[in-house]
Design goal:
With 113 residues, the protein is α+β, with helices and mostly antiparallel strands. The chain is built from 2 helices and 6 strands, in the order αβαβββββ. 26% of the residues lie in helices and 32% in strands.
Length: 113
């Protein structure tokens, strides 16, 4: 489970941002996680409370927005959800595709006051 390491890295980035911008408290942290990113939102949510325990983010809420794994069929150019269709084009049954979205893993928003 590499999610703990990812959360610890994010905490370090946010704490640095807080110090540089003289922020005392962050209410909510919003992460964007793509379905194809190999990062599991459930695991992020599970480890987050333990990771922030003795940090500047100890009272911060975590929200995760999951982005769909979208691909474009290399045979017929149809755009479809790769995850829902098991990587197979629902139009021509092609299995060759180009990924359009779904690999994201980023800090999308920081709600501070």
């Amino acid at each position: 489970m590499h999610e703990l390491g990812l959360v610890i890295n994010i905490i370090k980035q946010i704490e640095k941002y807080m110090k540089e911008n003289d922020l005392k408290k962050i209410d909510t942290l919003v992460l964007q996680v793509g379905q194809l990113s190999e990062v599991y939102p459930k695991y992020l949510m599970d480890v987050y409370p333990f990771a922030i325990e003795n940090t500047m983010l100890k009272d911060t809420k975590l929200l995760i927005e999951e982005t769909a794994g979208i691909g474009k069929c290399n045979s017929c150019d149809f755009i479809y959800n790769l995850v829902k269709n098991n990587n197979e084009c629902p139009i021509c049954s092609g299995k060759s595709f180009t990924i359009i979205s779904g690999r994201e893993f980023l800090i999308k928003e920081i709600h501070a006051y």
